[in-house]
Amino acid sequence: MAWNEPGGGNKDPWGGGGSGNQGPPDLDEIVRKLQDRISGLLGSVKKSGGSGSGGSGGGAGGSGGGFGGDLSLRVIGIIAGLAFLGWLFTGIYIVAPAERGVVMRFGAYTKTTEPGPHWHIPWPIEAVQIVNVDEISSFTHKAAMLTQDENIVDVELTVQSRIQDAANYLFQDQAPEKTLRDATETVVRKTIGGSKLDFILTEGRSAVAATIQERVQSLMDAYKTGLLVTSVNMQPAKPPDQVKEAFDDAIKAREDKERLENKAEAYANEILPQARGEAARAIAEAKAYRDRVIAEAEGQTSRFTAVLAEYEKAPVVTRERLYIETMEGVLGQNNLVLLDVPEGNSLMYLPLDQILKQTPAPQAKTTMLQAGEGMTTDTVPTTIRDTSRERRSR
Fold it and tell me: What are the boundaries of the region Disordered (predicted)?
């Protein structure tokens, strides 16, 4: 019969009557009652033995029985004390580094102890349950699920977990592992159903696994299972066998696209610096040509300005001089032979090839008067006349 059932008289396990205070009994009172019970039992045995020997022993036997009774009580007290000490020693326990101790008093949670030696009130008052919080447990979940774009994909993932809160693990959920499996299945279906097939098959595998782990952990915290999801490893998703070839072709086409893009990018990285170098060289040559043309034009302008000043002073002489120098420049570059022979001479042999080889081509004289050479209007006619005389004498 239980302690507090009807008809039990509210008696405690040691035969005492109950009171209005329902708290835990005092240890000294428990020990005292236990000693009284043992003394009562041994006292009844002693009295029965003394009555059997009293007829023959007389008064001496009565005095000896009193001494023996005191000795028996002392022995019983020592035995009871040793038993009590042994009972207290049973409350010592050691928690390993990878474990936690959950202390329960009359079945109710009291506290959680960390690694190291500890003591609790021995049974039946308190009890300790050791829980390994570093042990990793895992399970694999496989299923065919529907994606957001209404395609079917085969998903396989491994979930690893460990105990995070020993008290919640023992008392808040009746089956934490089953709760974890059910929550994982629910979260996987929701996550896969919100993602497209191409994303799941290609670059989205790690992102999907991270999302699943976060959502499962949120449910574990809400249910107070005391479990910590350490990792979710998602295997490469596969399409159903009926459409696997088509998906393989699509994946191959995507890989070819990436390969061609990388090749084009490499070619661009190679050709662009070369094109930039050629463009820079062409620009430099154009600038050099521009500077050269500008310099030549400026020089010709300077010479023309100098001649213009002389022309304004002596126009006729300057025109004749310019004409003569121009003709020298034009005809001086040609192989021209002029002969003045008397009339009637019909045949003449000239070795022109040898003559032209031996006689250097005449150098064209300066066509323009150089500014700053010291030539004035007085010297120009004299120079022209001297040149004309030379030509006529020839």
Answer: 1-29, 374-394
Listed residue (211, 206, 198, 204) closest to 233, CA to CA? 206
Rounded Cα distance between 161 and 177, Å, is: 9
Mind giving me the DSSP string for 141-189? EEEEEE-TTS-EEEEEEEEEEEES-HHHHHHT-S-HHHHHHHHHHHHHH
Who contacts 153 (Cβ-Cβ below 8 Å, separation ≥6)? 144, 145, 147, 192, 197, 200, 201, 237, 238, 239, 240
Take residue 372 and report the two structure tokens written for it. 């700053």
Residue 84: pLDDT band (50, 70, 90) is confident
Q: pLDDT-based confidence at 119, cuts 50/70/90?
A: confident
DSSP 362-392: PPPPPSSPPTTS---TTHHHHHHHHHHHHHH
pLDDT digits (tens, 9 = 90+) for 310-369: 788 888 888 888 888 888 877 777 666 666 666 666 666 667 677 666 655 554 444 333
Helix (H) or strand (E) holding 227, with range, is: strand 227-234
Distance CA 165, CA 96 (A): 16
Phi and psi for 323 in degrees, rounded to 5?
Answer: -65, -45
- Residue ranges covered by each domain of the chain: 90-131, 135-240, 261-326
Q: How many helices (H) and strands (E) does the chain have?
A: 9, 8
**Cα–Cα distance measured from residue 346 to residue 265, given in angstroms and rounded to the nearest whole number:** 82
Read off the pLDDT of each residue in 127-134 and give the average, rounded to a whole number.
88
Three-class secondary structure of residue 94 per DSSP: strand
What pTM was estimated for this model as a whole? 0.47
- Give the integer Cα–Cα distance in Å for 193 and 212: 12
The first and second tokens of residue 228, run together, are: 């910590």
